[in-house]
Amino acid sequence: MIVVYNRLFWLFVLVITALILVMCYLYLAMRRSLQRESQSLAFSHLAILGLETERRRISRELHDTVLPLVADPAVSALIRSISMELNSPDFTRLSLKDSLAGLCSQCNSRTEIECVCSIEEDPGFAGLSAESQLHLYRMVQEAFTNIEKHSRANRVSLVARSYNRGTAKNILICVSDDGIGLQNSKENDAAGLGMRSMRQRAAIIGARLDFISESGNGLMVRTEIPPSHSRANSEAAG
Fold first, then answer.
1. Confidence of residue 118 (pLDDT cuts 50, 70, 90)
2. Phi/psi of residue 175, each to 5°?
3. pTM of whole model > 0.90?
4. Where does residue 166 fall: left (phi above 0), alpha (psi -120 to 50 degrees), or beta otherwise?
5. Distance between CA atoms of residues 102 and 203, nearest Å
6. Residues 79, 83, 86: CA angle, nearest 5 degrees
7. The domain spanning residue 107 has which CATH number?
8. DSSP label at residue 89
9. 116 CB contacts (<8 Å, ≥6 apart)?
10. Helix %, strand %, coil % of the chain (to 5)
């Protein structure tokens, strides 16, 4: 009987030891995965900051160096428009709400696509840092660019509002069109580069980004910002 108990005891010890080793392995694997994710996010952040710096530099070069040399009014207007698109809005003077509405107006003026803009009076943008507002602005700008170049849409709508999820107040921004939606094509590969940039920006600000599409029934780009990230970004800016 003692021999049986000893065998059971050592078997129990072996099982517990194996479980501990497995748990240690899983913990280390999860820790390495989180470190890789953190490093990837930090790299994306630096890459996008570099992109914004380059955008501003090119915008200044176009405005200060190229524009004065152009005599044709149509070409001057085009260069001025490109310079404005490359440059980032000054959110100390112009609110994110007005900047997003401006994207809709620009879409109406330069294309035959009808753009409908519906932005709530106070969707909660004031709780976001200037950097987070810039990322959201660029995401919506990229959505409009993809629509103009690839969607073959006749109508696009921009909706921004806040809504309650339980006791929390989230910010929701949706850009949708009535175009061809996501399809396997060379055009879709080109659009995918912009979508990848949008995903990176969403990850940086802690937003949830969804691309909702059925072939031939348009595309909705849905961005949701939880209040915890809004407050965190606001405090970081302060």
1. very high
2. -120, 120
3. no
4. left
5. 25
6. 140
7. 3.30.565.10
8. P
9. 104, 155, 156, 157, 158
10. 65, 15, 20
Q: Is 21 part of a structural domain of the chain?
A: no
Q: How confident is the model at residue 85 (pLDDT cuts 50, 70, 90)?
A: confident
Q: Using alpha carbons, select from 142, 147, 138 the residue that is nearest to residue 56.
A: 138
Q: What are the tokens at 84?
A: 């404005």
Q: Are 88 and 146 spatial neighbours (Cβ–Cβ below 8 Å)?
A: no
Q: How far apart are CA 27 and CA 12, in angstroms?
A: 22
Strands 208-213 and 155-165: unpaired
Please check whether residue 83 lies inside any domain of the structure. no
Q: In which domain, by residue range, is 165 found? A: 92-237
Q: How confident is the model at residue 157 (pLDDT cuts 50, 70, 90)?
A: very high
DSSP 72: -
